[in-house]
Amino acid sequence: MAETVGEYFVRLAEAEDLSDYMFILAFDQFQGETHTYPHWKPLLAHVESVIAEFSDQPFRGPATCAMVMNAAMKRLKAQENVKAPYQWVPTLRTLRAMGEQPVES
Predict the structure, then answer these.
(1) 18 contacts: CB under 8 Å, gap ≥ 6
(2) Residue 45, beta-bridge partner list
């Protein structure tokens, strides 16, 4: 049976720091500093909300990571009027280009 979004992203709870969190969230594609962006708390709250909303959907590798990141970015802008960190959009582009990939559990 395929892994779900909720099952895959349960790994986020094991992240030791923000860099580890982004490694998991962005399928090892996030490039950049994490300590200079001042709005991580609301952004990651939106990430968690998106994950909860889609938790029972199949996880499809980088395509799912891109979907979660994109939805969180849009919610951050709509609800907080704040932009995601500048590395966020290039990471989304990379993940979208990677598309769906089988994921080893």
Answers:
(1) 34, 35, 40
(2) none
SS3 58: strand
Establish how many alpha carbons lie within 13 A of residue 7's alpha carbon, considering only the half-sphere containing its beta carbon. Answer: 13
Q: Are 35 and 21 in contact (CB under 8 A)?
A: no
Return d(Cα 95, Cα 81) in angstroms, integer. 24
Chain segment 1-26, per-residue pLDDT in tens: 689 999 999 999 999 999 999 999 99
Residues found in the chain = 105
In the chain, the N- to C-terminal Cα span, in Å, equals 11
| CA–CA distance, 55 with 59 (Å, rounded to integer) | 9
